[in-house]
Design goal:
With 385 residues, the chain is α/β, with parallel strands linked by helices. Helices cover 39% and strands 14% of the residues. It has a 7-stranded mixed beta sheet, with helices on both faces. A 3-stranded antiparallel beta sheet has the order 7-6-13, with no helix packed on it. The chain has a 3-stranded antiparallel beta sheet with strand order 12-14-15. Helix 2 runs parallel beside helix 8 and helix 3 packs across helix 4. The two termini are 23 Å apart.
Amino acid sequence: MIAYGRQDITQADIDAVVSVLKSDFLTQGPQVPAFEKAVAHHCQVPYAVAANSATSGLHMACLALGLQRGDWLWTSPITFVASANCALYCGAQVDFVDIEPSTGNLSVQALEAKLVQAEREGRLPKIVVPVHFGGQPCDMAQIHQLALRYGFKIIEDASHAIGATYLGEPVGNCRYSDCTVFSFHPVKIVTTAEGGLVTTRSPHVFERLERLRGHGITRDAAQMTQTPHGPWYYEQVDLGFNYRMTELQAALGTSQMQRLRDYVRARTRMAQHYQEALSDLPLVPLRLAAGRTSAWHLYVVQISKTAPSCRRELFEQLKAAGIGVNVHYIPVHLQPYYRALGFTDGSFPAAERFYQQALTLPLHPGLSSSDLQHVIGALHESMSR
């Protein structure tokens, strides 16, 4: 089966992990800071805090920005559930902003219209979480302008987008946001097996993130309420969590970061090949907006002028041909948990139409030329029936 996404592990990665296994530290050693430094350097940002998952990173970022009961967080319906769940973990409420169908990203126009209405009703969001769907950045400069006008914080969910750029700068530099969250799951651009990371420009947010991932404990006397009893002394000053990344994960991630640009170049070539080879089929690729480059975590097409039943038939035919296609995503507001919160069909029509026509094709560095041709040939055969 040709997987839609999978990790690429080299001997250098294996050697890096084995070296940690032979060292004195499996957790809380030198590898996690080295990984954080590598990502911060790539993103051109002063602070980076690694975590055991991007979900943990989103939760910590929400808490670090003060999200709490009575507040609202808005995000895209076309995302993994973690982008919304992070608000519920904080006791806050969730709402969604419809998408721009041509990119799959949060619509700035829909966001502005919703903000105007929310200001009238006195329920403006505390945080907005734009999701860089498939690896393409949202229109962050416009979202940032709305944040200045309406007073909300911004967390970029860049789980798909390490290696992407916006207006010539790397995603993760937080020029237009308070925090950016990355995922390093095996199907992502770079992997640490499981893992996440938060970048920020704020020293205050950085300090809070570091405490939150380690049970809320500090050994920094400047953050304590009492004079330290001795060099062993620590204080719990926050209600934190065990969200730490291990040394093994960090060593793998540091090794993988050395190949980030190669990975993105390979994904870009494959995406371009798909676009050219499938141009005669009723498959509409995502539009790449001006001033942005995508990391191409996903290659998503819209099956145009067809019924949902045709999408399912195509999906099953490709699976039968050994091709691991997928669908990203079932809109979060249509999940049973969120329906129970009051969301219904028709709440976000652009997102719902997008889901009904979406199909994700295989795209990862391990995809060979023959694999790519097999996918393309199978699509032509299936869609000619």
